[in-house]
Amino acid sequence: MEDPHPPSPSDPPHPKLRARAVTRTFGRAAGAVHALGPIDLDIAPGEFTCVVGPSGCGKSTLLRIAAGLLRPSSGELGIRTAARRPVAMIFQDYGIYDWKTVQANVRFGLDIQRVPRKEANARAKDWLTRMGLAEFAGAYPTALSGGMRQRVAIARALAVEPEILLMDEPFAALDAQLRTILQDELLTLTQTTRTTTLFITHSLEEAIVLGDRVLVMSARPGRFIAERRPPFPRPRSGQVRAAPEFTALKSELWELLRAEVGTEAAA
Ligand SMILES: Nc1ncnc2c1ncn2[C@@H]1O[C@H](COP(=O)(O)OP(=O)(O)OP(=O)(O)O)[C@@H](O)[C@H]1O
Ligand SMILES: [Mg+2]
Question: Hey, where are the domains in the chain?
Answer without folding.
Answer: 1-6+14-82+169-267, 83-162
